[in-house]
Design goal:
The chain is mostly helical. Helix content is 62%, strand content 0%.
């Protein structure tokens, strides 16, 4: 078992202190993921930047949640699934959408299902999609911009999911009610 430091303002490297301050302001706490990432300030800064860019993408709250949670569930991230369940609630995403993502059951619309399928294909095939897969995504009502935004969300989630796997980041108290584990 790895034991990574959960940094706070006192223990963090100097370059990470303003980044943790940003986390405190944004979330009202320093999420455990950010506390771990603070060990490598460039990682935390990159993660925060990608998170902000993805939040400002053209995807709506349901679609952002589909991208994030599809990747979190596929990677079996013990930390990010509960965290993004809480984030989804704050973004007013329905429990129907959140539960379908967590449980890997049907989403409430064909368009959201197409987004999940496309996101999984991007992840599993490492971007090597067949023309038919891209065409199906576009036919569902998405755009080339959305294709690239899925890549942006995937990049963000690789940073967090991999960090949480290696560091075994404990789930924050605020997200413990949404605890999750991948079904066998």
């Amino acid at each position: 078992m790895s034991s990574f430091t959960l940094h706070d303002q006192n223990s963090a490297p100097d370059a990470a202190k303003p980044l943790l301050e940003n986390s405190q302001k944004a979330f009202g706490m320093i999420p455990g993921l950010h506390a771990v990432m603070a060990e490598a300030p460039g990682l935390l800064e990159g993660y925060q930047l990608l998170h902000g860019l993805f939040l400002n993408s053209s995807l709506n709250a349901d679609e952002k949640t589909v991208v994030w949670q599809t990747i979190n569930v596929e990677h079996a991230c013990h930390y990010c699934v509960p965290a993004h369940t809480g984030i989804a609630k704050a973004m007013k995403v329905s429990d129907e959408v959140s539960n379908a993502l967590r449980d890997e059951t049907a989403l409430p619309s064909a368009k959201l299902e197409a987004l999940r399928d496309f996101t999984l294909a991007m992840l599993r095939q490492r971007g090597e999609l067949a023309a038919e897969q891209t065409e199906a995504f576009l036919a569902a009502g998405y755009t080339q911009q959305n294709i690239l935004e899925v890549i942006l969300g995937l990049s963000q989630k690789v940073m967090s999911n991999y960090t949480n796997h290696i560091a075994q980041t404990p789930v924050d108290k605020a997200f413990k009610p949404f605890a999750w584990s991948k079904k066998a």
